[in-house]
Amino acid sequence: MHMMKRGITLLVVLGLASLATAGLTGHQLGTPAGANTQSSTDIEMVSAHGYTKNQVEYYLTDDEKTYARPGLTVEIVNAEIPADRRPVVEVTFVDDMGLPLDREGRLTPGTISMSFVIAWYDGGLSQYTAYTTRPQTSPITGETAVQASTDSGGSWDDVEIGRSFYTFGTQLPAGYDMSKTHTVYVYATRNTADILDKNYYSDPTHDFRPDGGAITDRWGLILTETCNACHDPLALHGGSRRAVQGCAMCHNPQSWDPDTGNTVDLKVMIHKIHFGASLPSVQAGTPYQIIGYRQSVHDYSDVVFPQDVRNCWNCHSPDAEQGSNWFTNPTRAVCASCHDDINWETGENHPGGAATSDNFCANCHQPEGSREFDASVKGAHTIPNKSTQLQGINMEIVDVTGAEPGGMPTVSFTLTNDDGSVVEDIAGLRTLTLRAAGPIGETIDHTVDISEDARDATLSDGVFTDTFSAPIPGDATGSWGFSADVRRDTTIDDGTAAGTGVTEGAFNPIFYAAVTDDEPMPRREVVSIDKCNVCHDTLSLHGGQRFNTTECVMCHRPNNDDSGRRPEGENPPESVDMRWMIHRIHTGEGLVNDFTVYGYGGTAHNYNEVVYPGDLRNCVSCHESGTYSVPLPAGTQSVQTLRDWYAPMLPAAASCLACHSSIDAAAHAWTNTAPFGESCASCHGDNRAFSVDQVHAR
Questions:
Q1: Where in the sequence is the domain holding 78, given as residue range(s)?
Q2: Nearest in space to 282 (alpha carbons), one of 262, 306, 256, 255
Q3: What CA–CA distance (Å, rounded) separates 126 from 128?
Q4: Cβ 71 vs Cβ 100: under 8 Å
Q5: Cβ(672)–Cβ(480) under 8 Å?
Q6: What whole-number distance in Å separates Cα of residue 104 and Cα of residue 553?
Q7: Span 506-516, average pLDDT
């Protein structure tokens, strides 16, 4: 990055200015985007332009920014279809400061490649049909599919720096419907890998009607930003395709995979991918695969969606223009994408019987019925744990007394339903467990926990009290944290005689008590449960009783492992420390070593096939700001990593090697570790050459 050719910066800038003012002529469909000249102020703005610490541009010098001209934004200014029926599209392309770029990369670094798609939109069916297609013949089946694709054989007219016209090689068919909405999609890549070790992408869409009329039908089923909540960002086909509307233009009913016979229609393919391992066809033994570019096999049979797949609104945002389509427009293709064991011709696995068209789907599958779990679309996707029939259960710890070395603490708490009424039958609860762990503080990890079944707590004036039967250790110090697990089993009406059983749990309360401290000291907050729930919707673990990451660390601590559950023949035990375990789970298939944790009943949980949908370098996707840098707070403890390259690992090494699991990384950490501490911050501390932020920058 620091080897960039600063000496040619001025020549580049002067070259841009002279070219931009040369008055080159060409198509006049629109006005140029971006300045025609660059003043000294423009150059200063480029040099001073700010970036966040998780971007590689943040670490460039002003000279390097001025030379590299980071960024790429492509805009489709206009599109028209002339008499020869070969569409002409005007595009502009600028850097992050809005200054024009050279498409061929001669006057500004990085060539810009662009590919174009054009399709017409059927508003009644909410789907595209592309004019740009290609035949694909399977070497496996010999079948040929005509698939939507990008244009080929087109030509460029570069009218000035940062502004060009592209004429399609594809000729639209005679008699095409000019009154239909047409969409042009361009996906562009600016190749700056040689100077910034990254490329820039931009993929805009542009809707128009060839007859010039007002657009009344527009695709708007999904918002790209909704996908990006988990995918961070959605970047497919080499990273260049990132707009969901663009995906829908090629992934439409006209396109299918001749190798497997599977459609690649977006509404079918995406549902099946996200349902993955739970598809009836997969569970019956048929893998769900798409064979793509150069016969690469994409098998989605192991995909496990990180939340309940019936959370339809998490993808189909109500903010989208057609965000209600999922419940107002049921079709066989959409429904059978998940329920793929339905035979529409015979009616097998479809209570409504045979269905030869979509015309009558809405007769039974109305948007919303009179009760949950009925045949309406919303009713059929009711999630039991979110049923309105549930009373809701809430717990708050209001006080703790007797929290002292050797003492048996007494916990006072309230337990209520959502309507505020007291849950009096606590003996009938599936779980009511009080938990205490310590010592704790801003710089201290838990080392021990005790628990108490509190289903015999006494009730007075709406407050329960229960005293632990196990004491706080006599040598306890600092502060201790108190929490609780609460579960209630209930049966709700799902339209069947038996009903359906549901376990509802209370969000785990947290209360801190001073054992030897003058005032209670809370544990440091490292991650945010709200961030977890962006992907998990409702993080609910251990049978639906653990929801709060602050409680998780009471047991998932540096000195704890799965030895109590692991079969003797599978030793040594695996660490269940929070930082080690969660990093390892999310790294999943990227791990070098096996990561298997044994849980309740001796059940093995292997995470080596987990695929994280986002970018693991984006630490703030899970972490609170500033909680992932080194050095770690004094008092944090070593992790017993008996199944890894060495053990124990000091806390910073455990945090890093949980993801960076190679022997090279382990050797690096080992050689920079002394028995009395770690030297990580010497290179990886804030403002160091290889700070945590910088090495994770994207």
A1: 6-140+147-218
A2: 262
A3: 7
A4: no
A5: no
A6: 54
A7: 97
